[in-house]
Design goal:
Number of strands of chain A: 10
CATH topology of chain A: Jelly Rolls
Oligomer: homodimer
Structural class of chain A: mainly beta
Helix content of chain A: under 10%
CATH superfamily of chain A: Jelly Rolls
Distance between the termini of chain A: 23 Å
CATH class of chain A: Mainly Beta
Order of helices and strands of chain A: EEHEEEEEEEE
Largest interface: A-B, 66 and 66 residues
Number of domains of chain A: 1
Chain lengths: ~120, ~120
Amino acid sequence: MKNFEKVSIANEARVELHDKLNLTGAEISINELPAGASVPFVHSHKKNEEIYAVLEGAGSAVIDGETVQLKAGDWLRIAPAAKRQFFASEKTAIKYICIQVKAGSLEGYTMTDAIV
Amino acid sequence: MKNFEKVSIANEARVELHDKLNLTGAEISINELPAGASVPFVHSHKKNEEIYAVLEGAGSAVIDGETVQLKAGDWLRIAPAAKRQFFASEKTAIKYICIQVKAGSLEGYTMTDAIV
């Protein structure tokens, strides 16, 4: 496998990066929901922690029945077993990243994993 | 641990999310380099794959001696052992996310890890 891969992402409703970048430690998707739209199902995970970043717009997530308001600049960690569903605001679209990683998989990081 | 955590990020030169979000499968930093600036060292990793996303602006990465041009919308995977250094463009700042995950740690994802 090459020591790096790059892709340039244009505006699309959903892009999945795992195969495009040959990722081995994460799946990452870039998602856009139009105003008033939602992901059409509630889901949870077996092993994966999800981390969401809101890039543009606004909306909300319902997590185990609790509504969390979301706007650009917000980051959210959700534990595997939590039941979640994402909604755009009624008035504006929401663009967000979803990062899936195996919960508990990270060992060292930054100064404990880096070689400078 | 709570089933979710949220933080709202303002404009800062560097934000690290591991402790703010109680992440267990990744470290994520949000970084901004002013025009003409660079990360002041070359580094590689012991176990972590890094994934970079350029949010705003432009710049470049030098990876094992190869220069890769970067602009908003670009995503980059870098293998642990590759030697890397990041630069803002001479004319514009660059804002980017860096996601560290343990290489090879992801098992299932999306439909093979989700419970719908």
